[in-house]
Write a structure and sequence with these properties.
By secondary structure, the chain is an alpha/beta fold. Helix content is 50%, strand content 13%. The radius of gyration is 21 Å and the shape is elongated. It binds nicotinamide-adenine-dinucleotide. Nicotinamide-adenine-dinucleotide binds next to α1 and α4.
């Protein structure tokens, strides 16, 4: 469906580059190309290990028609949108290297967790258009949950353009930078909470006599289905829960067990712990 989605801000020939061609950059590239929002030939990725001697990178280039280089400046020069996708501790080094090449006709998008917009704005030429995005690892399956936060020098529609890009690989909302630590605590780290929930539900199934592979499939699909119902029905999750609890039935018995074990409080605490950690690192 994403292929025929109407674009308002991203032009058909928009060029985009990634500095740091790791897990996130590769997943995003794959998503952008397969959703059709960006052409592979308009994507350049640089990495310290992006040489032609790297077979995995070569395979990636062949599959998506992108260009790779070891020169970060080349990425900036060739791209209208430059995504900084190195680890947070490498950001300063990269900015120093490319800053002379960042002009006002480019948008710099950082996905580096915990690195504030001010770091970019202080280390790039005055007036540079910087946008911070907190995506999550579910970009890998084009189901990312991202939030875009604009810097102080963005131009009209820069945030919308970046949102449109990230909407091609999941959902994306626009917010303010101060929200991003909590976003990290919820959706950034959240896939891990989901993985644990799925594993535990599968354990529950196995404990009650189901074969492991069946239990795992049922657990994953059940959470996927529940999530889809929340997103697509527009109903409050509490309402959906009420709807599936028949009087004296199986589900309400399970709900009592969850409440006894502090299930809600566990999840609220998980988001709090990850948010506090993000604040501490940032
Ligand atoms: P990764 O380690 O897979 O990728 C980083 C890449 O940068 C590596 O391939 C590395 O070789 C390359 N690199 C290192 N130094 C470089 C340099 N000087 N110039 C060019 N490339 C260089 O990491 P990742 O998981 O893809 O994460 C990338 C960024 O995305 C991080 O800042 C992280 O905080 C952020 N992020 C990650 C996730 C996640 O779930 N993985 C979620 C949200 C945000």
């Amino acid at each position: 469906a994403a292929v025929c989605q109407k674009r308002k801000y991203v032009s058909e020939d928009m060029t985009i580059g990634f500095i740091g061609a790791g897990k996130m950059a590769q997943a995003m590239t794959k998503g952008f190309v397969t959703s059709g929002i960006i052409k592979g030939k308009n994507i350049t990725l640089s990495d310290v290990s992006a040489s032609n001697a790297n077979p995995r990178m070569l395979q990636f280039v062949k599959e998506f028609g992108v260009t790779t280089t070891q020169d970060n400046k080349e990425v900036v020069n060739k791209s209208q949108v430059v995504v900084i996708s190195v680890k947070p501790n490498v950001v300063n080094k990269v900015l120093k290297e490319v800053k002379e090449h960042v002009s006002k006709d480019k948008i710099v998008v950082s996905i580096a967790a915990g690195v504030p917009l001010s770091t970019f704005e202080q280390n790039l030429p005055p007036g540079s258009r910087v946008v911070r995005v907190m995506p999550n690892i579910t970009v890998t399956v084009q189901a990312a949950a991202s939030v875009v936060a604009p810097g102080t020098s963005v131009q009209l529609h820069d945030s919308e353009l970046v949102r449109e890009l990230f909407q091609s690989i999941g959902i994306c909302e626009i917010g303010s930078e101060y929200l991003l630590d909590a976003v990290t605590g919820l959706s950034g780290s959240g896939p891990a909470y989901g993985f644990i929930a799925i594993e535990s539900l599968a354990d529950g199934g196995v404990n009650m006599g189901l074969p492991r592979d069946l239990a795992l499939k049922l657990a994953a699909q059940t959470l996927l289905g529940a999530a889809k119902m929340v997103l697509e029905s527009g109903k409050h999750p509490g309402q959906l829960k009420d709807d599936v609890c028949s009087p004296g039935g199986t589900t309400i018995a399970a709900v009592q067990s969850l409440e006894k074990s502090g299930f809600r409080s566990c999840l609220i605490g998980a988001v709090e712990a990850a948010t506090l950690k993000a604040q501490e690192l940032g």
